[in-house]
Amino acid sequence: MLQLGKSQKAFDDAKRYLPGGVNSPVRSYRSVGSTPPFISSASGSRIYDIDNNEYIDFVLSWGPMILGHANPEVIASLQEAIPRGTSFGAPTLLETELAKKIQAFMPNMEMLRMVSSGTEATMSALRVARGYTGRDSIVKFIGNYHGHSDSLLVKAGSGLATFGVPDSPGVPKGVAENTITIPYNDIEAVKSLFAEKGDEIAAIIVEPVAGNMGCVPPVPGFLETLREVTKEHDAVLIFDEVMCGFRASSGGAQKLYKIKPDLTCLGKIVGGGMPMAVFGGSAKIMSQVAPSGPIYQAGTLSGNPIAVTAGLATLSILQRDPTIFKSVEDTTERLCEGYRKLAAEHGVPVQVQRVGSMFTIFFTDKPVLNFDDACACNNDHFQTFFHYNLERGIYYAPSSYESNFMSFAHKAADIDTTLEIAGEAFREIAKNM
Ligand code: PMP
């Protein structure tokens, strides 16, 4: 039995000072009705809590830690950078170096701007799209999550889906009215919307591989359609690759599916676990951003030297050894194939959906293509699976509306252990079917 006495105490104390005891809702474990382990440290594939429990981590800070936690080279570069000062609010050589590095992975990002979170990246990309086109309306897909800015907190996935909040109080009506939502992977809905209103639409923003309703790949033709209609109507196509960048492939979903968006948002891995994100794209559009153009965007800590250092170290390792992507993807596939076999052995209906090194086990017998499909999955089975695993040291995302992630630090023995416990968890589920 997992002992979480110290975490329980810490959680009770935190709740007096932080809403729900946390600084981001899904961390509260409210969705799974238990106490979240309070984390004290992490290393490689493992994460440790203040009760000295050890877990194999498939959350990986919700994606960033592709090299595993506390990668020695990343940590060493931070140790070297910190004594030089933690923030200057002035240009540094490192920022251009990182911009070049990002561009080497994502050549469509001819120019980019650094910010401090994925939310800022998508919010700013929308402003650029609106400023560039002179239009107000944007299109987003139901169950996609792009951070918590007003325009994008409409029918979003991730924590909103987990807590059943389609739209947040506090988003002005006038702002929400400019956000048109349609189902993910629905090619006909995209075409008919653009046939009717295409010339009023500033941008489509999309998770080209959805991760925030669980991992849902685009159906063939979906991304192509987005590219065609936006081109035809002079709207901006924004790929939000905050999660799938460096995970769907080394060059993100845009490389995997060979689609060139106008703007791309990156976060998570690009900051190597520090608060850092970017948006960028064609020089024609990005040159409209202040100070070279009139569209305003700014940040005191943007391009922060410590965050940039962590991002640079992470991307340098990935660039030096491109086989890392294949290796992480192969490990993910081995794990997913293992889940499929074990679930079948125990007669538990699952769809294990994977793109690159992101994956979700959906408890359903038919492929999950959109948010309705994700909502139709068996939540009781998910709950049983989640708790059975956590009790035995396997740390998954505490919601079925999330992706899990693999790192380069996860080795064969981690996968063996994980599959052994997954098999037992499927057996437990089968008992109650
Ligand atoms: N876009 C996507 C696709 C995301 O997955 C997330 C966060 N999970 C965000 C944007 C928002 O990023 P942040 O939490 O850094 O604001």
How much helicity do the residues have?
25-40%
Biggest beta sheet attributes: 7 strands, mixed
Element order: H for helix, E for strand: HEEEHHEHEHHEHEHEHEEHHHEEHHEEH
Predict the CATH topology of the largest domain.
Answer: Aspartate Aminotransferase, domain 2
Overall shape: it is globular
The assigned structural class equals: alpha/beta
- CATH class assignment of the largest domain: Alpha Beta
Instruction: Please state the CA-atom Rg, rounded to the nearest Å.
Output: 21 Å
Give the count of structural domains: 2
Pathway: Porphyrin-containing compound metabolism; protoporphyrin-IX biosynthesis; 5-aminolevulinate from L-glutamyl-tRNA(Glu): step 2/2
Protein name: Glutamate-1-semialdehyde 2,1-aminomutase
Cofactor: pyridoxal 5'-phosphate
GO molecular function: glutamate-1-semialdehyde 2,1-aminomutase activity
Task: Outline the secondary-structure elements.
Blueprint: H1 5-15, E1 39-43, E2 46-49, E3 54-57, H2 72-81, H3 93-105, E4 111-115, H4 118-133, E5 137-142, H5 159-162, H6 173-176, E6 179-183, H7 187-197, E7 201-206, H8 222-232, E8 236-240, H9 252-256, E9 263-266, E10 277-281, H10 283-286, H11 305-320, H12 323-345, E11 351-355, E12 358-362, H13 371-375, H14 379-391, E13 394-395, E14 404-405, H15 412-431
Parallel strand pairs: 3-13, 5-6, 5-7, 7-8, 8-9
Antiparallel strand pairs: 1-2, 2-3, 4-10, 9-10, 11-12, 12-14
Helix pairs in contact: 2-11, 3-11, 7-8, 12-15, 14-15
Bound molecules: 4'-deoxy-4'-aminopyridoxal-5'-phosphate (PMP).
